[in-house]
Write a structure and sequence with these properties.
The chain is built from ten helices and no strands. The protein has 192 residues and is mainly alpha-helical. It has one domain.
Length: 192
């Protein structure tokens, strides 16, 4: 099943976790520590009452992360990637409805794949990430391929295991964050 189909079929909790996982993996671009989004993850694990204080926790996370000024003119890949990550954060729906979460999860999926594409040293064969999300994976760059696999795995975990899959989803997201942090660090060393 393609990523687009998985997002279309996900329930509210799955959508929230999917978008949150994409944002979590991009934390190295947001200048925040690894624990900033933990209260949102905890909110997803709260049984039937999940997400009751979602909006409050969203606002707390936003307040802790710096929002940079968007530079004018040509922006290096890292700057463009950071702008996309900040847009993901800014778009987190405070009101937790299926429609809001689906739109956000879908946008986060696209942004996270685009971020990985921008930062990958290898060239991705597709002209857009849309083809990747629809299942066309020929000539995919390694960093984009890994991000696509993580997004699919998280949605499959949550559709199969429900709230019990959250721990594994968080672990996959943490692994992806470490990978992206290493890529950003390597690119920074290359500029020095």
């Amino acid at each position: 099943m393609s990523l687009v189909e998985l997002i279309a079929q996900a329930d509210e909790r799955g959508l929230a976790a999917s978008g949150l996982a994409c944002l979590d993996r991009c934390l190295p671009l947001l200048g925040g520590d690894d624990e900033i989004l933990r209260p949102l993850w905890a909110s997803l694990a709260e049984g039937e009452r999940w997400g009751e204080d979602w909006g409050e926790r969203v606002e707390q996370a936003r307040a802790k992360l710096d929002v940079p000024e968007v530079p004018e003119g040509d922006v290096p890949a890292e700057g463009e990637a950071a702008v996309l990550a900040h847009r993901m954060l800014g778009a987190v729906p405070v009101e937790r409805t299926a429609a809001n979460l689906r739109e956000w999860a879908d946008a986060c999926s696209v942004a996270a794949l685009q971020i990985h594409r921008l930062l990958d040293a290898a060239t991705d064969g597709a002209s857009s990430v849309t083809a990747r999300r629809e299942g066309r994976t020929q000539d995919m760059s390694p960093l984009v391929a890994a991000e696509l696999r993580r997004q699919i795995a998280i949605l499959e975990l949550l559709s199969t295991h429900g709230p019990a899959g959250l721990r594994q989803a968080l672990d996959l997201s943490t692994e992806g964050r470490r990978v992206l942090r290493a890529v950003v660090s390597r690119r920074a060393r290359g500029r020095v």
